[in-house]
Amino acid sequence: MAEQEWMSEVRAKVGREYGRVYAWDEVNAPMIRQWCEVMGVDNPLYLDADHAATTEFGGIVAPPAMLQAWCLEGLHMNNYAPGSTDENPYEVLKTLEAHGYPSVVAVNSDLSFERYVKLGEKLYYTTRLDAVGEEKTTALGTGYFVTLIMSFFSQKPEGDEKVGQLLFRVFKFRPANVPKPVEKGAAPAVPKFKRPKPGISDDTRFFWEGVDAGKLLIQRCTCCGTLRHPPAPVCIKCHSFDWDTVEASGKGQLYSFVVMHYPEVPPFEHPNPIGLIELDEGVRLIAGLVGVKRGEIRIGQRVQVEFQSFDDGELTLPMFRPVAA
Amino acid sequence: MTSKNSKRFDDVRPGEALPELAIPITTTLIASAAIATRDYFPGHHDMEAAQQLGSPHVFMNILTTSGLSQRFVEGWAGPAARFKDLKIKLGAPNYPGDTMTFSGEVVRTDAASREVEIALKGKNSMGSHVTGTATLVLP
Lengths: 325, 139
Prior knowledge:
Chain B: Residues 20-115 form the MaoC-like domain. The complex is a heterodimer. Chain A contains 6 helices and 14 strands. By secondary structure, chain A is mostly beta strands. In chain A, 25% of the residues are buried. The chains are: A mainly beta, B alpha+beta.
């Protein structure tokens, strides 16, 4: 599909370099200390002048992940420190916004470091608009991935020195679900992901009640003694409707398995290993595997059931764990 | 100090798992860390503003996720490790009331440069908040 006419304005800017944006403050100990306090970082390289003096830096340096923070504008949007460029390195985001893509989320932050920065250094960055992708639709909505590459420098009398680089990618989009204005004071509804519950019928209720009681129950035909799983109303061998249950030992072997890598589905483990287990009693069932190492799952592996509780006790599931043969 | 003992390159092997780190996500953490990273975007400290943006609550900013990722990696590596890079990709947002648990492992070592690459992941109740890599130089 041909792009909208106005996108040519955006495309024309790809590759463009934008001028310097200066840090408001030189690299300083109070901002470092407060950053470390909030992040829970206790590395003495950033906090303890005596320790830092013994390192190759000869004094305190800033945590590398702080690099971008030094040059942010602060409370007032687009209020850059004196001397900064008048151009807006984010101008394409404004163009996209004007054409119906109001929302933005940061997607990638790829920091690389030439060296650590010391107290007293004055930083600035320049920006290159690296890429604007094709229009994409994600779970969030439809829009464009915009990639900026920021180069960070330290001002030096003998010539400015590059200290690091940041590839910063944002998704500028039109939300798939137009946000509903929330009533003032309404309780926040942070989504909670729970495991789907089994659909329980008269045929399967015994199984799930058994699981809740920590028992792995298998249906048995009371006419011919044949075991069957999954549960069904009629004996597969003699067609009798009469049945009871036996408690399985929970021991068996891995008959087959699959490891789900994609998509990642919360709240399941990722990757998610799922086994087809042949119980020693002879029937097979499908269940999650636990305690398996990637690449070490083997068909024929001995396994043992264990009952795990999920979602604050709302759901109990039989899971199988490898055991020694 | 979590660890004054630094990992030495010779002691690290690909496949080594980093100790997990569980971080409770609170409004206070999200708001104070946004400010500590000089990010005053209202969605990171003002719940009503966040809700107007279609978000159920304030959400963690990417600079905080970078900071916490650094903490996770250097908590294992110790103070003598030096970062060459820290590359992260965000997924499910971090909202208050959740817990993010970091896990990671060594995926590459290079004896000539003494570099070690770590693959990391921070999971919350909605899935992966962050996946990424960090390259360190170890003594």
